[in-house]
């Protein structure tokens, strides 16, 4: 029962958020701040994790291929496939759910308990629209860029690992990443990313907006924002994979 | 003048306000007093439309407010200034941006006019040089003063203050009280102040409404309040050593 009530509340809040902003200039200003906070500030962590994961995938694939009939091209191929299909869109989104989700929820939640949201409303502003819409917009635009960046870095990390360990010659790895390529995998990854970005930003916005109480509740709701968005990301990963890849 | 007509409000079965009926007068400081939890904040938030009321009506100088939609409420909100309990300054904006915010939202003033207005109100609250400071760099008293500046930047008809001097030392509290009282006179505003501070009551309580467990229990002025025989009010008024000594003297 509680879940259904909460879903209704979420839908109503999104309805409020997705109204046309009264002042375009104010919206653009908020959007720019959110590009910085939610997007640009995540580049570092995405880069580090992607390079290392690409390297690890390549090494594991190489170490586990002791059958001489298997071509070493498979190392490049499987690194590419794993990065594009699953690692970059899903795992990076999960990491962003932790980083961006908790920051959205605690920022908006703090504004709620310190009555800043009330103040916005008294000043004639639709707070859901003013606070949540720019964050959703920023995430939906910026996350795909982060994910493409992550794919390149992951594949590059795999190449680096091959060279450094000497497991796979550079030319074979590069041949591998060019083999059996289906451009639809990128489309599939980007569709997933956009859906996940919407989940992260809207759920966290909702959890922050509906805080009531004090700083303890802000913390509790930020944790819930991360947990809920992570679970939904995994569920939607399954649904979208079924819908798009079959 | 704000008319509060028979308003009631409950949260999930808990009755918080019970048929409140009163008026807040123009050019005066109208105080709502009562213990913590008596419903002062809820009453104020009902007046400014942050809570929907279950029953009753609120009129601003004869104009109905409580039944209006968000768009129509905006017209009357243009004439309201609100000082929230913690100040509610926007963390990411500096003092100038905070004070300018309502001007950006409600007016089409030029940047120059807005700057002039910001300077004017910051001077009035005695903070002529704080423009570029962030809220995190301000003291409690300064936060309240910036919040007052923001509340009066649109030259409102109605000013609402929720516990304007809570968390301040007695001296600063008095400065804030005087400031609000002077501004009320200068701009001829209808000012409503929530407080549980007896010092404010005696100093600026031109009209006092005492809330007791969600009921309007007593109304009068700051001279009458010292001579009332209302038992619950007496309990509240003479709950501190200081006020008890005052009573003995009389
Ligand atoms: N948003 C809310 N939801 C549920 N109960 C609330 C809410 N706001 C206030 N209350 C309850 O209303 C009562 C009065 O609160 P309030 O008006 O804040 O008291 P105060 O006189 O100290 O300002 C309290 O019992 C409080 O728990
Ligand atoms: Mg209160």
Word description of this protein:
The complex is a heterodimer of chains A (246) and B (250). Helices cover 84% and strands 0% of the residues of chain A. By secondary structure, chain A is an all-alpha fold. Chain A has one domain. The two termini of chain A are 34 Å apart. With 250 residues, chain B is of the alpha/beta class. Chain B has 2 domains: 172 residues, P-loop containing nucleotide triphosphate hydrolases (Rossmann fold, 3-Layer(aba) Sandwich); 64 residues, no CATH class. The relative contact order of chain B is 0.17. At the A-B interface, helix 5 of A face helix 2 and helix 3 of B. The site of adenosine-5'-diphosphate has 10 residues of chain B, from helix 1.
Task: Please describe the topology of this protein.
The complex is a heterodimer of chains A (246) and B (250).
Chain A: H1 2-17, H2 24-39, H3 43-63, H4 73-113, H5 116-122, H6 127-165, H7 170-178, H8 184-209, H9 215-245
Helix pairs in contact in A: 1-6, 2-6, 3-4, 3-6, 4-6, 4-7, 4-8, 4-9, 6-7, 6-8, 8-9
Chain B: E1 2-11, E2 14-24, E3 29-33, H1 40-47, E4 55-60, E5 63-64, H2 70-77, E6 80-83, H3 95-106, H4 111-124, H5 140-152, E7 158-162, H6 170-187, E8 190-195, H7 198-204, E9 207-212, E10 215-220, H8 231-237, H9 241-249
Parallel strand pairs in B: 3-8, 3-9, 6-7, 7-8
Antiparallel strand pairs in B: 1-2, 1-4, 4-5, 9-10
Helix pairs in contact in B: 3-4, 3-5, 4-5, 5-6, 6-7
Bound molecules: adenosine-5'-diphosphate and magnesium ion (MG).
